[in-house]
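Internal ticket - ligand job 383, pyridoxal-5'-phosphate:
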Amino acid sequence: MAHDTENAVSFTSVAISDEEKVAVQQALASGHTHGDGPFARRCERWLEANHKAKRALLTHSCTGALEMAALLAGIGAGDEVIMPSYTFVSTANAFVLRGAIPVFVDIRPDTLNLDERLVQAAMTERTKAIVPVHYGGVGCEMEPLMGIAQEHDCVVIEDAAQGITSTHKGRPLGSIGHLGCLSFHGTKNLVAGEGGALLINDASYEERAEIIREKGTDRSAFLAGQVDKYTWQDVGSSFLMSELSAALLYTQLRRSTELQTRRLAAWQVYHDAFAPLEEEGLLVRPQTPISTGHNAHVYYLRFENFEAREKVRLGLRNAGIVASFHYIPLHSSPGGQRFGRVGSSMDVTDSVASSLLRIPLYADLSERDQAVVIATVKELVST
Ligand SMILES: *Cc1c(COP(=O)(O)O)cnc(C)c1O
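stdout (C-alpha cells):
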C-alpha cells in the first residue's frame, strides 16, 4: 500500500520557539560555550527549586549521569544491581562499565515499572544498588524500594530519564532516591539536544560528584574561589553539558508549563477517545491517569498479542503514521545475556514487550493529526 503522505504523522517533534533561538545566540555571543556557564547555573537552580533536588549538576546525557551515579555509589566488579529488564540499555551499561552484574526483575502489569514486590527475593549479599526506572514518566512505588534498600544498606539510583516535571505522591521523580538521573535528549519532554542532570539528594555525594564530573579535578572548588589552583584528585571523566545546550535547555525549562499543558491535553484526548475500544475489549489503555502526577511522556496501547499489535503498527505505517514498539527486554538481548542475569520470572516484561505500541505524542501534535491517528487506530482494531 502506498503511503498517504498528506496524512503523514511523525512520531516525535521538538517544540522550538524564537526564545530558544535567542538564548542559543546569546550563549554564542557571550564567548562562554563550554560547561558551567551562566545558562548552566540557571538550569541547575531551576532544577533545585522545581525538582526539589538538594543539588543538581547538568551532564551531557542521562547516560553520563547514570555513569556518575555508579562511580559515586562505589559500584565495583561482581557487585549486583537490581533493575527492570524493560528499560533502555544505559540503565544497565552504566553499571556493567564498573564490572557489576545487572539483575533483572519483572515489571508491574499496571505501571510497567519495576515490581517492588519481587525485589526482596532477588537481593543477595552482593546487591549494592537498586535502579527503579520511571517508565513513561510514571512513578515507581518508591517507599517499599527505599525500605528494602535501607535494610540491605543499598543505594537507590532513580533512572528518571523520562521523568522531568513528573511526581510520585507529590514528590518530583529523581528527588526521592539517594541519586536521580534526568534526560534532556531530543526525544524527551524538554530537550537540550543531548543532555541530562544528576540530582543529588544525599548531600554526602556532593563534593565527590563535582570532582568526578570535572575529569577528576577540583576545578569546581577552584572556580568557586575555595582553592587557589586545581589538581587531579580522584577518578573522573568529562560529564559537563555545553553552554549552548544549556541555553536551549533553560528556555525549555522556562516554557515547561506551556509545553506540558499541551502535552497533557493531547494525552487526555487519546485516553478519552480510546475508552470505548477498551470497553469492547479491543485494546488496553495506560492504567495511570494524569491525576497521578505523571508527565504524559508516552501514550501507549496494548493489544492481545504480538500479531494484534503488529496489525495496528503496520496499518498505521501504511497510513503514513509512525507508531513504535518499545524496548527489546535487556534479559533477552545479547548484551543482557552476556553481562546480566534474571532475578525473577520475566512473564510481564515479555508479554508487554510484544504487545505494546506507542503512538505519536508531543506538545506540537495538531488536533487534525491526532484525529487522524485516532480514526486510523479505530478502523484497524474494528476490522
Ligand atoms: C532516554 C533514556 C536514557 C538515556 O538518556 P540519554 O540522555 O539519551 O543518555 C536512559 N534511561 C531511560 C529509561 C531513557 O528513557
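Auto-summary: The chain has a mean pLDDT of 96. The first strand starts at residue 55 and ends at 59.
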